[in-house]
What we know:
By secondary structure, this protein is of the alpha/beta class. It is built from 12 helices and 13 strands. The protein has 2 domains: 12-41 and 285-382, Alpha-Beta Complex (Aspartate Aminotransferase, domain 1); 43-281, Type I PLP-dependent aspartate aminotransferase-like (Major domain) (Aspartate Aminotransferase, domain 2). GO terms for molecular function: kynurenine-oxoglutarate transaminase activity; pyridoxal phosphate binding. Its EC number is 2.6.1.-.
Amino acid sequence: MSLNLGERCGLVMQSDIRAMSIECARMGGINLSQGVCDTPAPPVVLQGAADALMQGSNTYTHHTGIRELREAIAQKQRRFTGVQFDADREIVVSAGATGAMYCAFQALLNRGDEVIVFEPFYGYHVSTLRAVEAAPVFAPLDPSSGWSLRIDDLEAAVTPKTKAILINTPANPSGKVFSRDELALLAEFAIRHDLFVFTDEMYEHFVFDGRSHVSMAALPGMRERTITISGLSKTFSVTGWRIGYALCDERWAASIGYFNDLYYVCAASPLQAGVTAGLRELGDEYYLNLSAEYEAKRDLFCAALAEAGLAPHVPQGAYYVLANTERLPGATARERAMHILRESGVASVPGSAFYHDGGGENLVRFCFAKESHVLEDACERLQKLRFS
Ligand SMILES: Cc1ncc(COP(=O)(O)O)c(C=O)c1O
C-alpha cells in the first residue's frame, strides 16, 4: 500500500496538553494541565438549555446562530465594551471560539499570508493558522518585565506578506492583560501597516486587581479591521457545549458565516438557547463575581506555588499561571513537568508548548479553574516536591 497521511497532518500535532492529561488520568492525579473549568455552570443557563431541549429545539438553526442569541451577544458587547454590532450582519455564532477562529482565518487569510503572534502563545492559534496554510511569525513578550511588548520587535516581524496581527487578551498562557496604551500602540501599528487584527477575548471576564478588559474594536479606527473572537465556554463554565462567536464588520462576517455553514452548519440549537438565557438574565454582578472568584483562586494557588519553590509569574487575568521550574531536576520543560506529576500527582503543561523554537524550557503552566477543594488538594500536594 502506498497510501499516506495528508501533508497537513504534520502541521497540527497532538498538543502536549492532551498528552499530559492522558498521563495524569493514568496516574489518577489532579489535572491542572487542560483549560477545563470544572466549576458549576449557572443554573439559568442549564435550565434554558433543558427547556429548549424539552420543547423540541432539535433542528438546524440559522448558520450564524439563533437571532435571540445574536441579539443577546450584541447587547452584552455594547454593555461591556461600548461597541455596537449588528445582530443580523455582524455576528457569527460558531462551534466555540475555536470554530469561529478557524472560519475567520479561512475567510480572510490566503496561503502564505503571515500573521504576527505574541509568544508565549496559545497552541491552537498557531496550529489553526498552519491548518489554513498561513504562517505565524513570532514576537516576544518579555517575562522579566510583566510580559511587556516592544514595538521594535513587531516592526522587525513585518514583511510584505504580513496580513494580520493576533492578540489574546487576557492571554493564555501568560495571564497578560493588554492595557489601553498597549492596544493603542498596536492599533497604530495595524493601521500603519494596513493589517487585520484578530483578537481572542475569551477570558474578557477574568481580570484581576481592579483592571478592566479593553476590547481592541473599541479603539478609534479599529472596528473595521478587527475580528473579535470570544465565547461562553469559560464565562459560563460550559467548555463542552461549544458555543463561541466572531464579531466584525459585515464585509467580513458574511464570508466567515459561509465557512461556518460549511464546517459546522450551526452550533447546537438547545445549547444556543441555554447561553441566551444566561446572557439575558445574568446581571453585572455575575461577571464581577467571576473575576473576584478567580482572583481568589489565583491568590491561593500562586501563594502555594511560591511556597513550593516554583516562582509564579502572577497572572493579571485568565486562569493560568506560568511557574518557574529552574530548580527542579530535568533538562527540559517536559521532564520537569513529568517530575512534578510523578512527585506530587499534579499535571501541568511544559512551557515549551507555548514557544515555537526552544523557548519556555524553564516554565510550566498550571490551570487554576478548579473547584476550591481540588485546588486546595493540589496546593498541598505541590508542597511535597523535592528539588535537586
Ligand atoms: C485563548 C483561548 N481561546 C479560545 C479557547 C477555546 O474556546 P472555545 O471553547 O470557545 O473553543 C481557549 C481554551 O482554552 C483559550 O484558552
